[in-house]
Write a structure and sequence with these properties.
InterPro entries: 3-OH-isobutyrate_DH-rel_CS, 6-PGluconate_DH-like_C_sf, 6PGD_dom2, 6PGDH_NADP-bd, HIBADH, HIBADH-like_NADP-bd, HIBADH-related, NAD(P)-bd_dom_sf
CATH topology of the largest domain: Rossmann fold
Strand content: 5-15%
Bound molecules: nicotinamide-adenine-dinucleotide
Structural class: alpha/beta
Catalytic activity: 3-hydroxy-2-methylpropanoate + NAD(+) = 2-methyl-3-oxopropanoate + NADH + H(+)
Distance between the termini: 53 Å
Family: Belongs to the HIBADH-related family.
Keywords: Branched-chain amino acid catabolism, NAD, Oxidoreductase
CATH architecture of the largest domain: 3-Layer(aba) Sandwich
Number of strands: 9
Shape: elongated
Protein name: 3-hydroxyisobutyrate dehydrogenase
């Protein structure tokens, strides 16, 4: 297929390269020249005008920083400029309301469009092992699925427009709460005289077991390899977790859904991110020691 790709940063760069590897012709646009240079090296054709990039394509994929940018890019440069009948896919993490608004505008102009945010970081984007949670009509999902398959290991239809974003922020809010709980439990166990490995051996086969413990342990040297073993470098940046928690709190307010622990997790990550935004989110254990 002929596919336009907009936003070739840490995530989009690897995703576009995987579309090329799958045999697609990728027309890349980004505001940053270094991102375009990397895309050229990965086999994309690059453009400095987004309207030119989307001309004549069968699909448009975007991976952009936030909802305001997604809305501006689709309303100004994609809708009405990509050929009628093209399928539009936004893979960015953005607020549910903007995702629904942009998809409604695309549908009103005759396009199928999905929101398809991802789980998995830069390594999964490069390796083609992302999980996509997809919101949109059945027809839009059917059309988007094969394109997403080329960039991921799982593609799941979450329901109507915006439901992909809803799944993403609910999942990440749960992850943040779970990570803070895991950090508290390990720190307290240690202060009560338990060796962290011993606590892991017990809790990982008891009812406190969770992903933050057994797949991503915040204590160095315990459990499988994770960012804690590497000075909390790499992994999922605290600043990105905070972004997702802010989106989750916005959505909770709109939906009238109480999130006392989600709200507290957001406050704790806000305080920690002020000086540690670049560290992996499991580094929040440092605030308890
Ligand atoms: P990034 O900042 O590395 O990349 C964003 C790219 O968009 C940049 O290259 C930037 O130049 C480009 N851009 C900005 N405005 C643009 C515009 N108007 N037109 C064209 N290009 C524009 O960010 P990232 O880490 O690749 O994240 C992208 C999205 O993926 C975000 O929504 C983020 O929340 C989500 N996400 C990131 C991760 C991660 O681990 N990095 C994981 C899951 C989801």
């Amino acid at each position: 297929m002929k596919i336009a790709f907009i936003g070739l940063g840490n995530m989009g760069g690897g995703m576009a390269a995987n579309l090329v590897k799958a045999g697609h012709e990728v027309r890349a646009f980004d505001l940053a020249e270094p991102a375009l240079a990397a895309a050229r090296e990965n086999g994309c054709e690059t453009f400095t005008d987004p309207k030119e990039a989307v001309a004549g394509v069968e699909a448009v994929v975007s991976m952009l920083p936030n909802g305001a940018i997604v809305k501006a890019v689709f309303e100004n440069d994609v809708i009405g400029h990509a050929p009628e009948g093209a399928i539009l896919l936004d893979c960015s993490t953005i607020d549910v309301a903007t995702a629904r608004e942009v998809i409604a505008a695309a549908e009103a102009a005759g396009y199928d469009m999905v929101d398809a945010p991802v789980s998995g970081g830069i390594a999964a984007a490069a390796g083609g092992t992302l999980t996509f949670m997809v919101g949109g009509s059945e027809q839009a999902f059917q059309r988007a699925e094969p394109i997403l398959q080329a960039m991921g290991k799982a593609v799941i239809h979450a329901g109507d427009a915006g439901n992909g974003q809803a799944a993403k922020i609910c999942n990440n809010m749960l992850l943040a709460i779970q990570m803070i709980g895991t950090c508290e439990a390990f720190t307290m166990a240690q202060k009560l005289g338990l060796d962290p490995q011993t606590f892991y051996d017990i809790s990982s086969v008891s009812s406190g077991q969770c992903w933050s413990m057994t797949s991503y342990c915040p204590v160095p040297g315990v459990g499988p390899q994770s960012p804690s073993d590497n000075g909390y470098q790499g992994g999922f940046a605290t600043a990105l977790m905070l972004k997702d928690l802010r989106l989750a709190m916005e959505a909770a307010e709109t939906a009238g859904s109480p999130t006392p622990l989600g709200g507290h997790a957001k406050e704790l990550y806000e305080a920690f991110a002020a000086e540690n935004g670049g560290l992996d989110f499991s580094a929040i254990i440092k605030t308890l020691r």
